[in-house]
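Structural prep section.
Before we set up the soaks we want a predicted structure of the protein with FE3-S4 cluster in place, mainly to decide which crystallisation condition to try first. Input record follows.
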Amino acid sequence: TYVVTESCVRCRYTDCVEVCPVDCFHGGPTMLVIDPQECIDCAVCVAECPVDAIYPDDEVPADQQDFIALNARLAQQWPVINRREEAPADAADWESVTDKRDQIEE
Ligand code: SF4
Ligand code: F3S
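Run finished without errors. Recording the tokens verbatim:
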């Protein structure tokens, strides 16, 4: 499966969702996650993300491993998102912030 990592938090560009052939992105207030039970490993979403937030699960950086479980858990909680939405007004300000787990709203 593919995994959305910390870069997505408060950037939430949603470019990724329109290319997913199986609608496995789920949207929360400040980030998106991928449902590991639905993802078919096609990889097309990776290049769509302007902040490189998406990785295959076996290539998730060491300091982002907790996002594997976080995607699985929150995909059960958040609704499917398959239409692009306007990014947050301050999304660009968050691109360079690396430590932003505390901004994940469930
Ligand atoms: Fe969807 Fe393919 Fe990305 Fe999985 S790898 S989330 S199936 S676009
Ligand atoms: Fe997040 Fe990148 Fe998609 S910022 S919403 S994973 S395009």
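Observations: DSSP finds two helices and four strands in the chain.
Flagged for discussion at group meeting.
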